[in-house]
Amino acid sequence: MTSNRVALITGASRGIGKAITLALAEGGLDVVINFARQRDAAAQVQAEASRLGVKAGLLQADISQIADHGRVFEFLKEKFGRLDVLINNAGVAPKVREDMLNASEESFDRLMNTNLRGPYFLTQRLARWMVELRQQVANYSPVIVNISSISAYTSSPNRADYCLTKAGVAMMTQLYAHRLAEFEIPVFEIRPGIIETDMTAGVKEKYDRLIAEGLTPIPRWGKPEDVGKAAAAIVQGCFPYSTGEVFNVDGGFHLRRL
Length: 258
Ligand code: NAP
What we know:
With 258 residues, the chain is α/β, with parallel strands linked by helices. The chain is 45% helix and 13% strand. It has helices at 15-26, 39-51, 66-79, 105-136, 160-180, 198-201, 204-212, 224-235; strands at residues 6-9, 30-35, 56-60, 85-88, 143-147, 187-192, 246-249. The protein has a 7-stranded parallel sheet with strand order 3-2-1-4-5-6-7, with helices on both faces. It is globular, with a radius of gyration of 18 Å. It starts with 5 loop residues before the first strand and ends in a 9-residue tail after the last strand. Bound molecules: NADP nicotinamide-adenine-dinucleotide phosphate. Residues 10-17, 34-38, 41, 62-64, 89-92, 114, 147, 149, 192, 194-195, 197-200 line the site of NADP nicotinamide-adenine-dinucleotide phosphate (NAP).
């Protein structure tokens, strides 16, 4: 068993997951970089993390497939022997933004499976192990962080399926926070706003305009590193008597304004 704390970050090959991985590696955690398809990008993240002096593992697994979760568990157990931090970050947007009066069941199922059902059951499996590890590992301070979105509470009828999954992740955070509190495993939600990644590349001009018009009180796009820093602060243990808390990383988007 490694003596470092170990973090699994799902969807860590790019974007927000990559930034979280590097922020945690900078803080001295060993990291497990999960990805679905883009092995080369994930391998680059692995190389960057290794240069920070920590152990970095590379793990292909499709989080939407419950059948892949056993492999995630075995990999962590065999290569690291422990899990301290689970970051449920992997997620997808609809392939096309389509009015909810027409949007397909196929898109709904794809998003639900990847953004909610997969993370829900992955957390179930790994949280059970964390409960066992609490009895076995000295100075164990586990934490689970779910990456939701401002879409958890913001209605966008042209991607209703996405909004529903993120609202589900918000409730999933509360449920696991409640259930795992007796084991001192806190569960937090980070709610990113409009962050510059591959996911938002197709709508860049639209959001450039909206941000210029005042959509976010802090007048700029969010960067993946903004989310990485928030995750690192949570993982460091700066909030020892909190669980189920929501961290808005959105340039103030959530503020009601008049
Ligand atoms: P991104 O740039 O599209 O990256 C998505 C990551 O998730 C990639 O590493 C991808 O792996 C991985 N992934 C996708 N499906 C997967 C699956 N089934 N199993 C395992 N990994 C999978 O997205 P992002 O913008 O960084 O978003 C990360 C998270 O933040 C998502 O949950 C997203 O909903 C949320 N979020 C994003 C924004 C934003 O503005 N960008 C705002 C709010 C919330 P591959 O590289 O192998 O495909």
